[in-house]
Amino acid sequence: MEKINLFFWSFCFLQWFAGAYDPLDPKGNITIKWDFFDIHDGDGYVVTVTMYNNQLYRHIESPGWALGWTWPSEDEIILHMSGAEATKQGDCKRFKSNPLPHSCERSPVIVDLHPGVPYNLQTANCCKGGVISSLTQDPSKAISSFQMAVQSSVNFTATSGAFGSPSNFSIGVPGYTCSNNMALVEPTKFSTGNSQRIQQALMTWQVVCSYSQFRESNAPSCCVSLSSFYSDAIVNCPRCSCRCPHTGLAGNCYIDDEPDNKLQTPNGEGDDKIAVKCTEHMCPIQVHWHVKVNYKDYWRVKVTITNLNFFKNYSDWNLVLEHPNLQNITQIFSFSYQPLIVYPGTISGSRRRRENKKKIGRINTM
Ligand SMILES: *[C@@H]1O[C@H](CO)[C@@H](O)[C@H](O)[C@H]1NC(C)=O
Ligand SMILES: *[C@@H]1O[C@H](CO)[C@@H](O)[C@H](O)[C@H]1NC(C)=O
Ligand SMILES: *[C@@H]1O[C@H](CO)[C@@H](O)[C@H](O)[C@H]1NC(C)=O
Ligand SMILES: *[C@@H]1O[C@H](CO)[C@@H](O)[C@H](O)[C@H]1NC(C)=O
Ligand SMILES: *[C@@H]1O[C@H](CO)[C@@H](O)[C@H](O)[C@H]1NC(C)=O
């Protein structure tokens, strides 16, 4: 593994936090808004669908999001789409229009287009192959959007709330679940270009999705090993940190550094259950914390992150560290770093500020 590019999903020590609640990012969510820009009662509408990644450090990486929902009735179809595409056109034979609708699926799945698609297929904030950055890494890339024209028989003047809205949303990324129904919220306001004018959508529907490590997998994805200059001993990742080796599943890990070609899955993406290197801890990612010096005035550590999953390359990864003695980082080498500031508002009513340190970067050589 001469080259590793990895995203460190979540700090290993956080594994035991249950449910969707992440104390390092208590408000983290992905909010999906449908902003209406043209409504023809009884006929259809034009909406811009935007996904906002409101998570501090979790990003959506390649192969990206795949947004799914279920239309409220058979009447809804997607006539046209730009900035993204439905994976299936479905059965459009009951529609005589020419060209045929973009998708007649009752539960369509939409995927982002890749960078470099023709200009006429693009919209603002589209075409990033479904990759969305996090708020800390690159807030300007923490949104993704596309536009579509929908045929629908809903009369919005005669109804209220989010009547006629789709339900059953999913974003196609492990670990995320979305609220069941869309809510009618304050119309989104936009400032256009560098003018002072503020425009707003005619109507906005919203659905919120959240992440849970436990929904993604009940096994941790990383472990931490420790060593220091003053001791020969290495405290390795505990055995079975992520899974136990030799659990009877033949071929559930690889001994060699180079798994042979027949193990390549057709789309180049691997199932990480079978693609990791055999270790006692069986974690796809290992973080090693080596204390290099420990003086009265300061200490210095070297952190090494190893990708042990043969079939996964990670890009724009980040590593979140929580350590009681990281209040005053003075120097970071080879990484960019930002404190992750969390206000755990509910802890005994106090606004105790907890600062967590965060590194963002890319490793190219090891
Ligand atoms: C989603 O995130 C936004 C931005 O942090 C926050 O204002 C909102 O309350 C969150 N919504 C939910 C349901 O958690
Ligand atoms: C929509 O509902 C309003 C109010 O009930 C009605 O005046 C209007 O004619 C309806 N429009 C269509 C296209 O059905
Ligand atoms: C929810 O969506 C899935 C596909 O995304 C679909 O197969 C399923 O039928 C939908 N469920 C309901 C209740 O509409
Ligand atoms: C990961 O990146 C390396 C080097 O760029 C490449 O050789 C390898 O095929 C990639 N693997 C996957 C699964 O994309
Ligand atoms: C952090 O370190 C700087 C420089 O070493 C020092 O001036 C400052 O007082 C320290 N702050 C705290 C809170 O320890």
Major β-sheet profile: 7 strands, antiparallel
Shape: elongated
Count of spatially separate domains: 2
**Average of the residue pLDDT scores:** 80
Rg calculated over all Cα atoms: 24 Å
In the CATH hierarchy, the third-tier topology of the largest domain is known as Immunoglobulin-like
What is the CATH class name of the largest domain? Mainly Beta
- Please estimate the helix content: under 10%
Total count of strands: 20
Name the CATH architecture of the largest domain: Sandwich
Strand content: 25-35%
Our count of helices gives 2
Which hetero ligands occur in this complex? 2-acetamido-2-deoxy-beta-D-glucopyranose
Task: Give the low-pLDDT segments.
Answer: 1-11, 13-18, 265-273, 344-366
End-to-end separation: 8 Å
**SSE run:** EEEEEEEEEEEEEHEEHEEEEE
Family: Belongs to the COBRA family.
Domain COBRA C-terminal: 221-340
Keywords: Glycoprotein, Signal
InterPro entries: COB_C (IPR056900), COBRA_pln (IPR006918)
